[in-house]
Amino acid sequence: MDFNKVIDLLKNSGYKLTNQRKIIIEALYHSDKPISMEEWLLLTKDKNPGINLSTIYRNIDVLEDLGLLEKIRPKDDSIKYTLNLMENHSHFLICKRCGKAEAIECCLSKEFKKVIEDKEFDLIEHNLELYGYCKECHNELDKK
Amino acid sequence: MDFNKVIDLLKNSGYKLTNQRKIIIEALYHSDKPISMEEWLLLTKDKNPGINLSTIYRNIDVLEDLGLLEKIRPKDDSIKYTLNLMENHSHFLICKRCGKAEAIECCLSKEFKKVIEDKEFDLIEHNLELYGYCKECHNELDKK
DNA sequence: ATTTCTGCAAAGGGTTTGCACGTAT
DNA sequence: ATACGTGCAAACCCTTTGCAGAAAT
C-alpha cells in the first residue's frame, strides 16, 4: 500500500489529516525497521519540533483503529512499532545486533497445523518473532 | 523437571530458600497456565497474606537468572508468566477466552528455514505465540 | 460552524529501589 | 556471624487524560 492509500483510508474513516498526523505516519512509513517510541518522537520532531509525545500516543490509537499498526514486543521488554501494509500476514527477522527487521511471509508448516488441528484448537492468530544476526552483522562479528 | 529439582537449582546457584520464595515459585509451578502478576500475587497471598508485590518482582529476576521463567506478551499488552521446565523448546496454544495455555513442541517448517537461509540470516532464537479458542471454549461459544 | 485534534500539564498505573529489619545458611 | 531477602513507602517512568485553544472539514 503506498502512502496516499494510507492517507485515503485515514480520511475515509472520518479522521482529519493534520500536519502532525501526516508527519507521524510518514515517519513510520519511511522507516525500514520497527522503531521505538523514542525513535518515533525524534523522527517526528525532526520535521516539526513542536510535536508532543501525547499526540503520537493518540495517533497510535488511530493507526490501530485502521488496522495498520503492528506492535512488536521483543524479549527485552521494549516495544517497537511498524506499519502493517502487507496483504499477507508476515513476520520479522530481527537482527540482535543492528536492530534491522525484515519482513518475511508467513508459512506455518502443514505438520504444525496438523498438530494444532489434532488438539481441536481453533487458531485465530499468531505471533512469531525471529531473532538472530543479519548477513552484514554476521560478517562483522566473524571479523573479530 | 520436578519441584525439588527447581529448588536444588535455586540453592546451587547461591540463592536462599525463603518461605516467600518457595510459595512464589510453587504458585507458578502448580498453575496449569501462564498467569498475570495480579493472579500470581493472589495465589501467593493465599498461602502467606503478608507477601509483598515487590518480593514477587524481585523473584522474577531470580527465576530469569535461573533461566526458568517464560514471559508471554499477548497482543492485549498484558504480561503473563510461566515456568519453562521443558527440555524441548516449545510454544503455547493460548485460549483467548479461558486463558488456558497448552505447550506444543516446536516445528518451524523446512520451507520456512529455507526462506531464512536464503536471506543468509543467522537465526538464533524465536518466539511463537498462537492464539485461538480451545476445544471447550469453542463449544461454549457455539452454543450461543 | 462544527467537529476533531493538539499541546500542555497533571494524573495514573505498573515496576523498581533505598532502607532498616528479618531470616537462611 | 554474615550475607542475602523482605516489607514498606517513596521514587520512577511510560502512558493516559482533562482542558482550553487551534486546525481541518
From TrEMBL, chains A, B:
One of its GO terms (biological process) is negative regulation of DNA-templated transcription. Its cofactor is Zn(2+); Mn(2+); Fe(2+). Belongs to the Fur family. Fe cation binds at residue 126. This is Transcriptional repressor. GO terms for molecular function: DNA-binding transcription factor activity; transcription cis-regulatory region binding; zinc ion binding. Zn(2+) binds at residues 95, 98, 134, 137. Signal peptide: none annotated. It comes from Vallitalea guaymasensis. InterPro entries: FUR, Fur_C, WH-like_DNA-bd_sf, WH_DNA-bd_sf. Keywords: DNA-binding, Iron, Metal-binding, Repressor, Transcription, Transcription regulation, Zinc. The keyword Transcription regulation applies. Binds 1 zinc ion per subunit. Binds 1 Mn(2+) or Fe(2+) ion per subunit.
